[in-house]
Amino acid sequence: MSIIPICSVCVANYNGAKFLEACLDSILAQDFDQPVEIIVHDDCSTDNSRQLIRDKFPQAKLITSNENVGFCISNNRMVAIARGEYVLLLNNDAVLHQDALKTLYDGALKYGKGIFGLAQYDAETGELIDIGSFLDPFFNPIPNLDPNEPNVAMIIGACLWVKKDLWDEIGGFPEWFGSMAEDMYLCCQARLRGYPVMTFAESGFDHWVGSSFGGGKVKENRRLSTSLKRRKLSELNKSYVLQISYPSPLFQIIFPIHIIVLLVEGIIISLIKFNLTIFKEIYLDCLINLFRNQKILRRKRRKTQAGRKVSPGKFIGPFRMLPHKIVMLLKFGIPKIKL
User: Fold this and answer.
1) In the chain, what's the furthest Cα-to-Cα distance?
2) In terms of Cα–Cα distance, which of 96, 110, 126 is closest to 32?
3) Tens-place pLDDT, residues 155-208
C-alpha cells in the first residue's frame, strides 16, 4: 500500500525546461521528514519538458494536456488528484530553499487552516522581492519587506501553501481567469472567510520573475518593465477580484473610482507613449470585459459576500491607503510596456 503524502507539490509547466530541473531538484532536496508527492501538469509544451520529467523525475506524477489551458486550469487539475492534506503550488521557475516545506508545515500546524507563503528572492540577483504583499485600495500588490510582519493580504501563486480542504471550500482558482491575479482571488476568498494569510520570513524561494509573461520587476536601468499581455491580464483580473471581494459599503465607494482611474490612466499613458494600442488592448478591453461579465461577477459577488465572516475593517487590515501606482510612478517613471 502506498504511503499517503502529507503534502502534494503541484508544478504547473509550460515550456519551462530551462527552469524545471532546478525546481524539481529543490523539492527532492528538502529537509523534511514527511512524505511528499510531486505532481506536474504540462500545459501542451513544445519544448522537451515532458521527456525531461519522464527521464529524470520518474517519481513525479505527470499530467499532460493536449491544448494550452492556462495556469488556473492546470492547478485545478493537479489539486483535484492531489492526495496530500496540504498542497503547495509552485511555479516551474521557482527554486525552494532547503527548509521551505518544513517551515510551511510547521506554520500550518501552529496557525491552523489558512494560506501561507515564504520570502521571495530574485533568482538572478539574490535580492529580496517580498515577504508576501499588502494591497492598496485598488488591489495593486505592495511588497512586504518587513520580516516581523507576517500578516499580509496575499501570497504570490509562485509558492503558495494551502490546506486541501480549504482549497475545496473556496473552489480553487476561477478557470475563466486564465492566468494572473488568481492568487489574489484565492487569498481574498480565504480572508473573507476568516482564515489567516501569512508569510514566514525564515525560509524562502528563488524566483525567475517574469519568465512566463515578461516583465513584472524593475530592471537594471531602474525602469519598471512589463508586457502588454501581462498588463492586460493583470488589470482585468484585479478588477474582477475587486468587484467580487470588496465588502459593502466600501465597494460602492471604491468601484466607481476604480473605473474612472483606469480610464484616466489609460488615456494618459497612451498619450505619453503615442500609442493607442495600449489604451485599446489594456484599459478599454478591461472596461468592456467588466461590462460583459457583470452577470457572472454579480452572482459570484453575492455568493462570496453571503459567506463573509469578517468585518470590512478587518478585511482591509492588511491594506495600505496610498495608491501603489503613484509610488511606483514617482520612483521609476512610466513603465516600459513591451507590445
Assistant:
1) 65
2) 96
3) 999 999 999 999 999 999 999 888 899 999 999 999 999 999 999 999 999 999
